[in-house]
Amino acid sequence: MIKQNDFKYNFLIMSNMANNQINLNGKKVAKEDFFVLKYDGASFDNHRMELHSFSKQITAVEKMLKETINTLNEKGKIKDTAKDTKYYLECRQGSFETIIFILFANPVITGVVSNCVYDYFRYMVSKVKSPKYEKEVESMINNKIIRKSTKDVFSPCVTNSDKVTIIHGDVTNNIIMGEKEREQIESHIKEIEEKLPIQEFEEELIGEIRKVDGTKTEGLKDLDKIKLGFVIEEKMDAIEVIFENGIKEEELRKIIFNRIKIKGISTYRGEERVKIIIKEYADSPRKKITDY
Fold it and tell me: Does residue 184 have a pLDDT over 80?
């Protein structure tokens, strides 16, 4: 049986499965690439990961790969876009290792996506610039989806002993991200985001007011201590929200978790909406127009 820590085996997968060919420029091309993440530590004993953490992590990896593929397409490195590719998951026995296989519609330079993602993480950890994908990595750094996905890749790591390894070729090239490296990446992301331009826009939005720290309406007495968020319809994340003229407990109980339409000022950092000041609001229930 092949062991989890047999890094050479992971390296050989590409040779065995990618069906490499040579293009007119003499470079190896294939219709497959793969990306390997290995999780170790107390949180992954018995080869397990909490379902919520796994779902968050694997969704983050998929988003990151799709954004990377679109970036490489925009820079002329590959013909495929994210919608042209398919993604497959393979889990291996061991601490907790996931392999994402990427199938392309058109041949690409062997390892182009995994190498680009690898160089992105290397830059985020050590700020070492990519010699081959400098422009692509720069675009990835400025991409809010990739920055958020980067944090979510680490979300399963909750103890000091937890670490995630990006397996890349032989063991000497692997990026091992323990607690120290994760803190460095989070600090780097914060540094990047603090430099993004701040803009404000007047907007009308539909969604729900929610408590950021809970799911029930109990405990609304100390409104100054409660962190409220607004979840825009068909979105997942709650955006920090405050009421321009304040709001009484009784009124908040009426609207929280209900569909409302708001008019207010949205603050953006770069492309990301980070705060909303609500000036006006009104109930906005869905209207039933048919009854079968």
Answer: yes
